Amino acid sequence: MLDLLKNQLLFSGLLIAVLMGAINLGVAYCTFYERKISAWIQNREGPNRVGFFGLFWGFHFWGYGQPMADGLKFLLKEEMIPDKADKPLYVMAPAISFIVSTIGIAVIPWGGYLDIDADGIVDVACQVANPDIGLLYVLGVGSLGVYGVVLGAWASNNKYSLFGGIRAAAQMLSYEIPLGLAILVVVLSCGEVRLENIVRAQIEGGGTWNVFVHPLAFFLLFVTQLAETNRAPFDMAESEQELVGGFHTEYGALKFALFFLSEYTHMIINSAFLCVLFLGGWHFPWIPGLGLEDTAWWAVLAKMAMLGTKIAGCVFVYMWIRWTLPRFRFDQLMRLAWKGLIPTGLGLVALAVVMTYFGIPGSESVWPKLIWGLGGNAAVLFMVVLVVGMSPAGVTGRQANMPPISLLSPAKRVPRADQGTAN
Amino acid sequence: MGANGETVTVLKPQLKLILAAVIACMAMTAAPRVAMASGGGGLDEGGFVSDVLGGSHPLFEAVGFYLFGGLAAFSAIAICFTKDVVRMAIWLFATLGAVAILYFLLTAYFLGVIQIIVYAGGTLVLLIFGVMLTTKSPSMQFAVSKIGLAAGGVVSLLLFAALMGLVLGTDWQRGEPTGSIPVATLGRDLLTTYLVPFEVISVLLLVVMIGAAYLARQERE
After folding, report:
1. Is the domain of A60 the same as that of A106?
2. What is the pTM of this model?
3. Which of A80, A87, A143 sits opposite B121 (nearest CB)?
């Protein structure tokens, strides 16, 4: 039995089964925690009724049965397809969305290498696939994420849906550029595109978590991932207040549930990716058993738990942001990407190139990396803030028709020059 | 589910027919290849199980090639016979994705991923986006003029003849598989040995952009 597990293909198969189960359960409870956290932030109770069939003397389990009830509701609802919808695309869209957001798990290094029979020889990698191009794979899969949204929006034959889809497409096109730039910084500073080796580079000889060397790039990647998952404050594709439900207005029952599942799966996968690139993957200093040499089964489980904890932390921040920040207006969204994130990203790539030229990433000590990285990041941030501060605020969209904002009371508003003098 | 039950039918009958025909063609051409690949000596000999578990059995390659090659061919043909712009884009997506998987089967992982990022990801998003923004109605149907059809037919026939001439004229040699080439080697070669072709190809994307801008301008009058 153990010999069979030594085969990478069989082990990967087992890992796929375990991960799919874990992620689907995680997604179910993400929806629950989303509601709990929003309730916590808004001083409410949140879902607290659904227990397990009145089990344990009617004890409610703090509402922990809620995801099961939600899932059951989605299953039992009527599956309907609008008459004027493009039917094949309408059915395909949620499936594409879900598949694309799920296949990203394949290259995430969950727990390093595993030595099953403790003979000192590493047997398998605790990773579904360990290709040479792991990072590019994630980038490619991420760029497909918009298809489900755009297709669903178009196939619904609903103008609000279409608006949501177009917004999603424009947003994705803009935010993919800073995403790529942030990733490029990691590639340059680790000299690797294999995800397992990127984790290794953050641990071995003088390596430190990339977030300490390139905090701005970490922030850039996090923001663009928020945009890529269509999470608030970037949820222009849904924005209930103006577009009913955006791209999923016409969807119900399990098809809607698939869209929902894919959003949360995307969050989890993106968080895992963020942790691997910037937060040292499964590594944590000072805890024994999380090193590169620890390949026993218990160490691998501990590593997976470590990565899981980090992912949970990132997902919590996602939710925290959603219930704290208001949504961007569309022109603000575009301005942020093209005038803020992309110049910052270009500056960071230039910094990483200079660091690579002077051989900083390969140094045996942590200090040159930290000094160069933090100093350079501070310089880039300073320049960006300087340029943004010097340039006049753009007047776009509805702003052009509005009177300028006055710090005085509304009654004393200063009239616009081009509207003639007041009175 | 509609009241008359008609809405349940997802695939149109014609589409089912084309699909069945392609599957039949693929099965016919694939069968001898698969039989050859699985070896004459039955499935138990020659370490079949270990080969399969190692992912190196030629059966994988044969089945994968015919499956995804068939998909690529089918969806490429379907682009020509679809009138709806967005559906065309989806068929194009299927073609490009299938070609990317063919690259993966040949262990050209880098090429496959770049295919997805550049074409399936970038160009197609641009296409969908452009179509949605430039046409008056998103459900615009394409009507091809007879001259256009003739010109396109002549060009594609010429291209087909040229490609077939190349394929048939090449002296194909069967060598040992070299495995996947590291990304670092590829990158170095692209920016030194093959710099000029690399730059020339990147002009193609510029042409696509100029074309898109031109089309978008013309729509507005």
Report:
1. no
2. 0.78
3. A143
